[in-house]
Amino acid sequence: MRKLLLFFLVLGLLLLSPPLAIAQQTAVDFFENGIGKSKSGDYTGALQAFSMAITMNPENSASYYNRGLAKANLKDHRGAVLDYDRAIELNAKDALAYLSRGVSKSKQEDHRAALLDFSRSIELNPDDPQAYYNRGVSRSRVDQPKGALTDFSKAIELDPTNVQIYYVRGVTKQRLEDYSGSVADFSKVIEMSPKRSQAYAGRGLSKVELNDFTGAVADLNKAIELTPEDGDSYFYRGYAKSKLEDYKAALPDYDRAIALKGDNYQAYYGRGFCRSKLGDQKGAVQDFNQAIDMNNANAETKVIYNGRITHAVLDNLRNVVQERNKINELSSERAEAYFSRGLSKNKQGDPKSAIADLNKSIELSPTYAEAYFSRGMIKSSQGDQKGAIMDCNSAIKLNPRYAEAYYVRGIIKHSLGDENGGCLDLSKAGELGYNPSYKVISDYCN
Question: For residue 240, what are the CA distances in angstroms to 148, 209, 212, 259, 291?
Answer without folding.
Answer: 30, 10, 9, 19, 19
